[in-house]
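Final report, results section. Input specification for complex C-07:
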Amino acid sequence: MADEFEDNAPIASKEDKDRENEINRNLIPDAGKVPLDPAQLWGKGLIADIKRTVGTHWIEEMTNFNQKTVAVSLLMFITVIAPTLTFGAVYGTSTNFQIGTVETILATAWTGTFFALTCGMPMCVLGSTGPCLIMTTVIYEITKTMDVPFLPFYAWVSIWTFAYTTITAFFDLTRFVKLATKFTDDIFALLIVSIFIFNAIGSPFGPGGLLRYLDPDNKSHLDFLKELGGEEYDYLTSAVLSILIGIATCATIFTFRGLKTSPFLCNQASRDSIHDFSVTLGVVVWTLIKHLVFPSVELEELNVPSSFEPTFTCCDSSCTTYWPDQCTDQSEPTGTRSWFANMMDLNGKSHAIFVAAGPALLSFVLFYLDNGITWHLIYSPRNGLKHGESYNWDLFLVGFCNCVNGLLGLPWLVATTVPCIVQVNNLTERDAYGNIISVQETRLCHLVSHFMVGLSLLFLNAMKLIPMPVLLGVFLFMGLASIGRIEFWQRFLLFFQQPSRYEKTAFVKYMSIGRYHLYTILQILFFAGVFIVQNTKAIAIVFPFMTLLCIPARLWFLPKIFENWELLLLDGEEEEVSEWVAAKEQHKEKNLEVDSDFKKAPSDLTMDITGHTSGFSFDL
Amino acid sequence: MADEFEDNAPIASKEDKDRENEINRNLIPDAGKVPLDPAQLWGKGLIADIKRTVGTHWIEEMTNFNQKTVAVSLLMFITVIAPTLTFGAVYGTSTNFQIGTVETILATAWTGTFFALTCGMPMCVLGSTGPCLIMTTVIYEITKTMDVPFLPFYAWVSIWTFAYTTITAFFDLTRFVKLATKFTDDIFALLIVSIFIFNAIGSPFGPGGLLRYLDPDNKSHLDFLKELGGEEYDYLTSAVLSILIGIATCATIFTFRGLKTSPFLCNQASRDSIHDFSVTLGVVVWTLIKHLVFPSVELEELNVPSSFEPTFTCCDSSCTTYWPDQCTDQSEPTGTRSWFANMMDLNGKSHAIFVAAGPALLSFVLFYLDNGITWHLIYSPRNGLKHGESYNWDLFLVGFCNCVNGLLGLPWLVATTVPCIVQVNNLTERDAYGNIISVQETRLCHLVSHFMVGLSLLFLNAMKLIPMPVLLGVFLFMGLASIGRIEFWQRFLLFFQQPSRYEKTAFVKYMSIGRYHLYTILQILFFAGVFIVQNTKAIAIVFPFMTLLCIPARLWFLPKIFENWELLLLDGEEEEVSEWVAAKEQHKEKNLEVDSDFKKAPSDLTMDITGHTSGFSFDL
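Structure output:
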C-alpha cells in the first residue's frame, strides 16, 4: 500500500516547503478570511430585503408556470405531507394531544401558503422539524412543573419569540449567520441528510425505518396485531415486503431519473417529463403493485386523522382532561378544545407571562439558527440562485407565523433542510457535466404543495392508500440524491480510496494529502459532536447551538492550524478557488521561465539565489 | 416525433441512392460473403485439431495458475452445480428415476474433468441442457411404446451417436457449423440468455424463477407445507423474502464488480480480487444474512440427494419396478440398479439395437448443433481467444464421453452456452473502454470446477445451506451481464431510443435507418420462431433444427434483401467492418477532392458527369 501512496506535494526540504507555503500564502490577499457584511440597522436591512426580493421578483416568481412547476409541486407535496403526519403523531404523544396531527397539517398548510406568497426566499419551504418538536416538549414539561395550562403558556412563548425575531430583523442581526462557511454548512447538511437516510433505512437511534420492521415489537406490528388478532397477522411477511417495496421504490425513482441522460424514449421532452415526475411515478407504481399483487399483506399506513377538528377531545366542559385516556368510563367526549386558547387562563399565575420570555429566548435561537443555516445552505453561490437573500424579512415572517400558530395551539414551523435541497435540485437545469444551466426560482411549487397539504384534509382516506414503506423509499431516494453533492461527504469518501485515483480537485492538486485529511478529520469530530447531541434525548435541544459552535471554530480555531490558502482551497467558494488556482499557475509559469534562465547560469549562483528567495514573498 | 427523426443517408433522388449503393457495393470484394473452409477429409481435420490445440498449448493451459483461476473456478462451480442439481431432479421425474440427481452430478464431474484434460477448446464447459433432457425424455417414451427396458436402449442410442460423431469428425463435417455468422450466433445467444433470465425471474413458460414463489401452489411451498404442517408455514413470507434475497444477491454482485473501475480500496489488486470473487462473495454474504437474520423463514433449498448410489431403488431383485412408487406396501427397497446396464436385456426384441440408430441420428444432430453453435459463439474473433479451434476432435470427445455415460445410465452433456460466456468474460482482461487486453485461456477452471462438482457428493448437506433464491440471483446476474454484449439485443433496444442519440456504430453511420431496423425485425422473427418452438413442449425437440435454419436463411435469403455491404456492416466481423469503413472514408475524401474540382467547372458539365457516374463502379 505504502508504495502506491502518491503525495502531491513534491518531496522537499523543510526550507523548500516553507518557501512554497510563503508563496501560496501571498497569492491572493485576504485568502481564507470570512467577511462580515456591514450592518443595516433600524429596519434598513428589512426594507432592503423586501425591495430586493418580493419587490423585484414577485410577479415573475408567481407566473413562471410550466411542467416543472407541476412536477415539483407534486414532489414537494409528497416530501412535505409524510413528515407532517409523522411529526403530528409524535406531537400528540409528547403534548398529551394538545397538539396533534390535525394541528400539524393545518399549521403546515396555512403557514406554507402564506409564507410562499409573502416571503423573500420562496425556495426555502417550511415544515415541522425535530428541534421544534423537542422545544415544544420541553415547554410542555415546564408547564407541568409550573402547574399552568400548556396552550396559554405556549401562546405567550410564541409572542415573546415574535418580539425577539422582530428586534433581530430590525437590527439586521441575521447577518451573523452569513459568517457560516462551507465548513459549517456541510456539517449541518450532512447531519440533516444522514437523519433522513437513517430514518428511511432504520437506525439504532430512532424507532422508524425499513429495517425496523424486522423487530416484531415495532409499533406498526403491534397495532396490526391488536386490530386483526394474532392469528391473521404475520409480522415477518409485512416486514420483508416493506423492505422490498421501500428499496424498489427508491430504485425505481433513480431509474426513471437516469432515463434523462439516456438515449431512450422518443425525445428529450418525454425524458424530462419522466425525470421530473419520477418520484410521483415511483409512488404510484409501487402503491399499485402493493394493492394489486399483495392485497392481503398489511403494511404500515400513514397515520391520518379521521376528521378535521382539534385533536384534544375533552372529558368535561372545562376541557382540561383528555378523553378517553383520562376518563375511561365516559363513552363520548364532551367536545374538543376551542381553536383559540384563553391567554389569561394561567391557573392564577400571571407571572408565567414573564417566565415565558426565558424559553422564548431558546426557541428564538432555534428559529434563528435552524432557518439561518438552511437559508445559507440553499442560497449559497454554489446553487446558482439569483433572486437575492432576505434573511431579516423572512425571519420576521417566521416569527409572525409562529406567533399565530402559538395563539391557535398549532406547532411551530421552520425551514426544513432536505425538502429545500430537493426543491432546489429539482428546479435546477444541469448540463451533462453537472454544471448549473439555470434555476427556475418560483413561489408556485411552495404555494401549490402546501395548499395541497391543506386540501389533503378533504381526502384523508385516499392518503391512507399509500403504504408507509413507499414513502420511506422516497425519503431514502432524497437522502441518497442529496448526500453526493455534499463536499464534506466526498472528502470523507477519499479515506477509502486509492490516493493516486483521487478526483483532481484543487485541494488534491495543491495541498499535501495529510493536510486535507486532517481538515476532514476535524470536520468529522465536529459532526460527531453535533450528531451525538442530536441523538441524545436529554440534551437534544442544544443541537442547534452545537452547530453554532462550528462558526467560531472556523473563524478562530481553524486558521491556527491551516494556512490561509489551505482554508481558501477547502472552504472557499468556487470563484475564490478558481482565482487562487489561476494566480498559482501564473506564478508557476513565471517561475519556470526564471528557472530556465537560472539553468544557464553556474550552479553555485543558482544556489545562492534560491537561498535568498525563502523568507520573503514573491510579488509576481 | 417525426421531426426528430434523423435519417443518416442524405436526402437524395433514387438515382443518387443507386449510385451511392453501387459505390458501397464495390468497396470491398466478396463483402458479406460467408466462406466455407476447405475440407480436411480422412481424419486430417481431426489430427490438425489435436496438433493445433492440445498438442501446442496443453502445458501452458495446465500451468497458468493465479488468483483469477481460483476465482473463476469457484464461480464456475456455482454456475454449474445449481443447474446440475435442478436438471437432476427433472431427469428423475422424466425417466421414472432411472436417471436422477446422483447420475447428473456424477456425469458432470467425470465428463467435465476428463474433457478439461483432453479437449481442444477448454474454454467451453459441458453441462446438462434442456435439449438433451427433452431428447432423453423422448427416448424414454419410445422405450415405453416399444416395451423395451430404457437403460439398455439408451446405451445403444449412445453407441450409435458415438459412431455418427466419429464419422463426422473423420470427414471434417463440422466445418459447416462455421457457416453460422453473427446473425445466427446472436439469435442463439439471446435465446439461451433469455432462458437464463426468465428462469431466474420467473416466466410464463416454466415453473422456476423468483416471481413464481408468489404462486401459493409453487412446488417449494407445497413441499414445505407437507413437511412442516400448514400452521407453521406462511408461503407469502417465503415468497417475498425469496424475491428480496434474489434481487439483493444480483445487486451485490454487480456492486462488487463495479468497484473494479472505481477509486475505492487501496490498490488495483484488491479491487480486482473483489471483482473476481464477486459472485462467491455475493453468495456467501446473502447465505449468511438468510441464516442469521431470517433463521425462521424457510426458503427453497437445492435438491440434493441423500447418498451416493444410483437413484433407481428396486422393488425386487429383477429391478424393473421403482420403490416406493410401484410397490407401496414394501417398507424397504431390495437394492438399487447396477451401474452398468445389461445391454442385451431388450425384452427379447433384438431389432431394437438397429431401431436405436434412428433416435441416435436425432441426438447426434443435437450434439452437433448445440456444441457447434456454442463453440462458434465462444471462439468468435470478437472474444479474442488465440489458442485455436478444435471442432472435430472435441465433437469426437463429446461423442465418446456421452457413449460412456450411455453405458452407465448417466445423462448426456453438451456445451452449455451461458456458463461458457461467463467463463470467457471472467477470464478476459478489458481496458476502460471495454476493449479486450488479454484472455487467460486455461484448462484449470474447467477442471477444478467440475472436480469440485464431484467433491460436492461428499458435502451434500453443506450444499443445502445455500438458499435457492441466492442462486437465482446469481443466474439473474449472469443473464444480465451477458445480454448487454449481444449486438442483436443492442440493435433491438434502438427501437426504444431517439434516432439522433443512437450510438454511432458503423451501420448507424452508413446505412439508412429503415434498413438496419428491417434487419433487426427479420432477426426478431427468426428469434420468435426458435423461442416458440423451444417453449412448446410437444415440438421443443426440434429447437436446434430451428436454429440451424438461420444458417441457410443468412446464406441465401438475406442477400436477396440486403446489399452485400449492408450485410458486411451488420453481420461482418470487426476487422471486415473496419476495412470497409476505411475504404469508404478514403473514397469519400477522394470524391471531395473531385467535387471541389468540379465546382470550378460550369454547372451543366457537373450534371453531365454526375449522370455518367451512376451505373458503373468507381475504381478509386
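Residues 1-9, 601-620 of chain A have pLDDT under 50 and may be disordered. Chain A touches chain B at residues 1, 4, 214, 234, 236-237, 240-241, 243-244, 247, 262-268, 293-294, 296-297, 493, 496-498, 501-503 (CB under 8 Å). This concludes the modelling results for the funded period.
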